[in-house]
Design a protein that fits this description.
- The protein contains five helices and six strands.
- Helix 1 packs across helix 4.
- The N terminus and C terminus are likely disordered.
- Strand 5 and strand 6 form a beta hairpin.
- It is an alpha/beta fold.
- A six-stranded mixed sheet has the order 1-6-5-4-2-3, with helices on both faces.
- It starts with 11 loop residues before the first strand and ends with a helix.
- It has a single domain, classed as Double Stranded RNA Binding Domain, CATH 3.30.160.
- The longest helix is centred in the first third of the chain and has 17 residues.
């Protein structure tokens, strides 16, 4: 497990209040050669770092990786850059609806809910509707000039850990094994 002395800020999230998060036990990603993989231009190294961190954090929280056809949720992500068209394309691809996501602290503190370049977005999609039912945003603050690959991986892991901590009805790994 990665560790470090970096102080990280709390993540912020919003979610659809009528989605039954407590019934979720498995997740999947879209395949890299799917339409989702075309929503943004990021390196395979960055993609691998993000997906590995998501897997580690979800596994730590008792979720099980599954096939796309059998998963309870689909996890997607977007690394915000200067190209606002990429973010719009991503939002359309996950059928993001800000007004539909009424739960979470983002509703109470709209000032903190900002998607600036360098922020990481994670969405949880209802696989039947292919629509985002939960979203979290976190400013990664990766410095491509000075951060080495280990520092980048640590920042990504810490961000995703903080983000998944905001997931409604987070599973306890000790309880998940008895479910």
């Amino acid at each position: 497990m990665l560790s470090g002395c970096t102080v990280h800020q709390p993540a912020i999230s919003k979610y659809q209040t009528n989605f039954n998060f407590s019934k979720v036990s498995s997740y999947a990603f879209y395949k890299r050669n799917s339409e989702f993989g075309q929503f943004q231009n990021i390196s395979y190294t960055t993609r691998n770092s993000i997906e590995l961190a998501i897997e580690q954090v979800l596994d730590k929280n008792g979720f099980i990786y599954n096939t796309l056809d059998d998963a309870d949720i689909v996890v997607t992500y977007h690394l915000v850059n200067e190209n606002t068209k990429e973010l719009l394309t991503y939002n359309n691809g996950v059928l993001y609806c800000s007004l539909c996501l009424r739960g979470g602290e983002a509703q109470a503190d709209k000032k903190q809910w900002q998607t600036k370049p360098g922020s990481l977005i994670i969405d949880v999609l209802d696989p039947e509707k292919k629509r985002s039912v939960w979203r979290s945003v976190y400013p990664l603050k990766i410095n491509v000039k000075t951060d080495n690959s280990r520092e980048v991986q640590l920042k990504i892991y810490q961000a995703i850990d903080a983000m998944i901590d905001k997931y409604p009805h987070s599973r306890d790994a000790s309880k998940a094994n008895n479910a």
